[in-house]
Amino acid sequence: MPEDKRRARTETEPPDPESFVPFADNAGVRSVGALSFENGTDRVVLHGSLDLTRDRTGLEQAKRLRATLDTIVKALEASDLPDAVTEAPDAQPKSVKNPFA
Q1: Basic and acidic residues: which segments have biased composition (predicted)?
Q2: Radius of gyration of the chain (CA)
Q3: What does the buried/exposed string (b/e) look like for 21-36 if buried means 16 or more CB atoms within 10 Å of the residue's CB?
Q4: Which of 74, 63, 75 is nearest to 11 (CA)?
């Protein structure tokens, strides 16, 4: 039977909110189960899903989720925030020669 990689990953990784510094770079990722927090300098993007089960694994995942969200909230509270992040305009699409023609 295949191993549940999401569960194995969360059991081996201790909850350490200091290893994920929100808004510090465009490369950092923290995963809680199958839920990923992707770091960016102007936003943190969440992808995936998370099942919080009623067991010790679910408790540990809930604590890791709370620690991650608390870290993000503290980073936001410590910043001088604009009313909204300005979105960069999308680049105009470029025409390319059809490689199949």
Answers
A1: 1-12
A2: 18
A3: ebbeeeebebbbbebe
A4: 63
User: How many whole angstroms separate alpha carbon 11 and alpha carbon 61?
Assistant: 9
Here the tokens at position 64 are 């890791």
- Digit-coded pLDDT (tens) for 84-99: 888 766 777 788 888 8
Q: How far apart are CA 25 and CA 87, in angstroms?
A: 18
Please give the model's pTM, rounded to 2 decimal places. 0.67
The answer to whether 22 and 46 are in contact (CB under 8 A) is no
Give the residue from 18, 20, 16 showing the smallest Cα distance to 40. 20
Find residue 29's DSSP bridge partners. 38
